[in-house]
Amino acid sequence: MAPQMIFVNLPVKDLDASKAFYESLGYTINPQFTDETAACVVISDTIFAMLLTEEKFLGFAAPGKTISDATKSTEVMLALSAESREKVDELADRALAAGGGAVLDPMDMGFMYGRSFTDLDGHHWEVMWMDPAAVEGDAPQG
């Protein structure tokens, strides 16, 4: 059985700028699912962000719905795991250097560490690492 995949669809104001932002984070664009109205950002073998121009995004939305302004409201927080604390910092630092915004102070609970940022359109991303022993229930939780 094939693993389940996720395709997160995000409306963007400037497709080329958004593609450049995600490429600067180290992700690739799959040209097979990319054109002048959409781009497929490959985050992992099972995680993809579909960047859609606002017009294209609205074509998939329910009739009468509008696009939320992610710079003014939070509809979702997209969370990604990282393999280490250093990888959390690396991704968040890349996002900030590429024009993303800082959201919250880093969260450090010892066994879990995370940082957050927004992309160019204000979509809220969280990157977190958790000690493998904590996942198995062997690490102290505080």
Tell me what you see in this structure.
The protein has 142 residues and is of the alpha+beta class. Helices cover 24% and strands 32% of the residues. It has helices at residues 15-24, 54-60, 85-97, 132-135; strands at 6-12, 28-30, 38-42, 47-53, 77-81, 101-102, 107-108, 112-118, 124-130. Strands 5, 6, 7, 8 and 9 form a five-stranded mixed β-sheet that branches. The protein has a four-stranded mixed β-sheet with strand order 1-4-3-2. β8 and β9 form a beta hairpin. The longest helix is centred in the middle third of the chain and has 13 residues, at 85-97. It is globular. The termini are far apart.
Head-to-tail CA distance between termini: 38 Å
Mean pLDDT over the residues: 94
The helix/strand order is EHEEEHEHEEEEH
Report the radius of gyration as a whole number of Å: 16 Å
Structural class: alpha+beta
Could you estimate the helical fraction of the residues in percent? 10-25%
Topology:
Blueprint: E1 6-12, H1 15-24, E2 28-30, E3 38-42, E4 47-53, H2 54-60, E5 77-81, H3 85-97, E6 101-102, E7 107-108, E8 112-118, E9 124-130, H4 132-135
Parallel strand pairs: 1-4, 5-9
Antiparallel strand pairs: 2-3, 3-4, 6-8, 7-8, 8-9
What can be said about this structure in brief?
The model has no long low-confidence stretch (mean pLDDT 94). Helix content is 24%, strand content 32%. It is of the alpha+beta class and 142 residues long.
Keywords:
142 residues, 32% strand, alpha+beta, globular, five-stranded mixed sheet, 9 strands, four-stranded mixed sheet
